[in-house]
Amino acid sequence: MYRYDSYDQKILDQRVEQFRDQVRRRIAGELTEEEFRPLRLRNGLYLQLHAYMLRIAVPYGTLSADQMRGLAHVARRYDKGFGHFTTRTNMQFHWIKLEDVPDALADLAKVQLHGIQTSGNSVRNITADHWAGIAPDEIEDPRIWCEIVRQWTTLHPEFSWLPRKFKIAIGGSPHDRAALRIHDLAFQMRRNDAGEAGFEVMVGGGLGRTPILAKTIREFLPKRHLFSYIEAVLRVYNQLGRRDNMWKARIKILVHELGTEKFRELVEAEWEQIKGGALEVPESEVARIAAQFTPPPYDADAPTFTPEFDALRLNDVGFARWLKTNVAGHKQPGHAIVTVSLKPEGGTPGDITAEQMDAVAELAERYSFGEIRLTHTQNVVLPHVRRADLPALWRALSPLGLAVPNIGLATDIIACPGLDYCSLANARSIPIAQQITRRFNDLARVHDIGELKIKISGCINACGHHHVGHIGILGVDKNGEEFYQITLGGSEDENARLGTILGAALPAGKVVDAVETIVETFLALRRDGERFLDTYRRIGIAPFKERIYATA
Amino acid sequence: MPLLKDGQVVADPWRVVADGEPLPPAVPLLVPFARWQTERDALIRRNAPIGVRLPNTLDLAQVAPDLPLFELIALEFPKFVDGRAFSQARLLRERYGYRNELRAVGNVLRDQLQFMHRCGFDAFEIASPNAVEWCQAAMAEIDVFYQPAADGARTVFERRTA
Questions:
Q1: Is A409 among the domain residues?
Q2: Distances B38 to B19, B23, B24, B44, B51 between C-alpha atoms, Å
Q3: Residue of A150, A158, A160, A228 to mutate, interface with B, max B Cβ within 10 Å
Q4: Is A82 helix (H, G, I), strand (E, B) or coil?
């Protein structure tokens, strides 16, 4: 894992003091709320329905045990004892007081965490494949490049007042686990014909009221040109992106209006002028950062199975289910990737208590070399667990409510905070998610249904990624009442698609029934071994539509 | 409005002429870009310093051949959230080699001064009686930088490899 050097730490410490002074000036009346707003936003501080919300970045979703404890400390001391992990691997504290924010940030800076650029019209937290460095199919570890880009985009003097927010993601494997195509700018590691690793460059993806999947503008970019290429994209966007209408200000609209080919020409022309020179990432710096992402000292003799493991798998259906959904293959023999579910029955997706954070930190130290990952699906990963330790880890997670065997299944729901917290929302998201998890509380049934990604947004801004859910649920306001529009068939991986609207929006009381009807329709029409998405792609939306609206 | 140059409040020797106003003789003149385009020859014949105020939507390639004629370029921040002139400033300094005064005008905030300075601005019109204190404080808040920019500050990447 990357550890800050004295330069990184100094920038962070100075930024905390800079923000402390901005808060002081706001409280003293030297700054108007209009002037303070963009300053607080670019440090992750929102004003929501009931309180301030502080968003902390977890760059490329990688956390140390100490950092997790730092988050637990802030949850306990400055908030109500819990936090919320988001779809961009950030943590949100929803009940923070303005005057406490500088101290909370100073405490977090001690563990090298911050709120820098977690909001505002700037380059946001860089996200990555949560299996970076451990996926068996990986070309190269994307975290090295994520960290380099994190540094280069931090407090960038030219690109801190962009037309709109700007999200970058980097993937290291052919299989996309980072939802690359819904990002403003995304890099997918590829090999060229000479066998060298580099990036496919995609631009102009995003959800919101105009959902668009990113377009490839370059098939192969040598790694050393990463900064200059990002600078070229950002410079074109900063100058030509629309500023007359905030709903048309994202780069996806610019790419759409210019046409992908024209946009590509502008970027390539700019890039020709700036590539090389000071923007070329120095080899020594790549090596210095790469050295911090070397694999931990794995047990080379770690067994794949032990008698205890085998016995538990045969005798405990809970453990067997957990192995099936929450445990994945690791590139190191004898090791596994464990996903800790933050989706218990009746829970708020992504919420985690301070006690759970501390417990995860301790289990990470005991079983995973002190390393933790966050997923864009609002779960937590222990990335390097010896398979022989899986029974003990499972026994430790179960009483904490963190071993629900539902990863990738119907109850592993993504949901935004919705109208329970967010001032932008039209409808609540969390209660819909909770009702679905209660309706589908039979684990045997949920396992039988198989892979099913349900994603819920409380408004058209689509923080819950509903457009790319297998089942997407969007909250809308109809004359002051909460209604929900359902989409089917979206996906966010390397075969990303936007979902298709099923029909007229449904009242809140009918949403869970509709989800169940959709699932029953699928089960009735499913062929051997099909996932929901396979069946949907084979039969289309009509059978689902008939069932929902015939009975509605 | 106070003019801040190199960290000090200075008297502004430049006379601003608006659209339609006759050109006064022999004083340094700051004209809108539209007037530069239509009255280029008359302005050159005056034989006095010329400054031009460029809209933030301008493609600088359009004005590049004329840059050696200007002793002042003013770049606009119509609203503080509109950051187009940050890119224009860097391009003027780094690509087109413009070396004379580069002034930020419009809605210029204290909390943007350091970024503006890094992008190549050396003069700021700031609506505050505390401009000097503001500027000194703002410039000192952060003194380590990751990115190469127009101020030529050594980057963290360069310092690490030195």
A1: no
A2: 11, 13, 16, 12, 15
A3: A158
A4: strand
In this predicted model, what pLDDT tens digit does every residue of A320-361 receive, in sequence order? 999 999 999 999 999 999 999 999 999 999 999 999 999 999
Q: Is residue A116 part of a domain?
A: no
3-state secondary structure A152-198: HHCCCCCCCCCCCCECEEEECCCCCCCCHHHCCEEEEEEECCCCCEE
Let me know whether A389 and A425 are in one domain. no
- Name chain A contacts of B141, Cβ cutoff 8 Å: 14, 17-18, 21
**Percentage of chain A lying above the pLDDT 70 cut:** 100
**Predicted local confidence at residue B1, as pLDDT:** 77
Query: What is the rounded CA–CA span in Å between residue B27 and residue A70?
Result: 61
Coil vs helix vs strand at B73: strand
Q: Looking at beta carbons, which residues of chain A come within 8 Å of B114?
A: 157
Q: What is the DSSP string of A395-414?
A: HHHGGGT---S-TTSTT--E
Chain centroid offset of residue A206 CA: 13
Q: Alpha carbon A238 to chain centroid distance?
A: 25
The answer as to whether A346 is a domain residue is yes
**Number of domains observed in the structure of chain A:** 4
Provide the total of helices (H) and of strands (E) in chain A, helices listed first.
18, 21
Residues of A in contact with B115 (CB under 8 A): 155, 157-158, 160
Locate tokens 């005991």: which residue?
A366
Separation between Cα atoms, residue A532 and residue A287, nearest integer Å: 44
> What does the pLDDT look like over A145-193, one tens digit per residue?
999 999 999 999 999 999 999 999 999 999 999 999 999 999 999 999 9
Distance CA A425, CA A484 (A): 12
Same domain, A438 and A467: yes
Report the CATH number that the domain containing residue A430 is assigned in CATH. 3.30.413.10
- In this structure, is residue A406 part of a structural domain? no
User: Is B41 an interface residue toward A (CB < 8 Å)?
Assistant: no
Total-model pTM: 0.95
CATH code for the part of the protein at B3-161? 3.20.20
Q: Are strands A471-478 and A454-457 parallel, antiparallel or unpaired?
A: parallel
Domain hosting residue A516, numbered range: 415-551
CATH number at residue A343: 3.90.480.20
ipTM of the complex, rounded to two decimals: 0.97
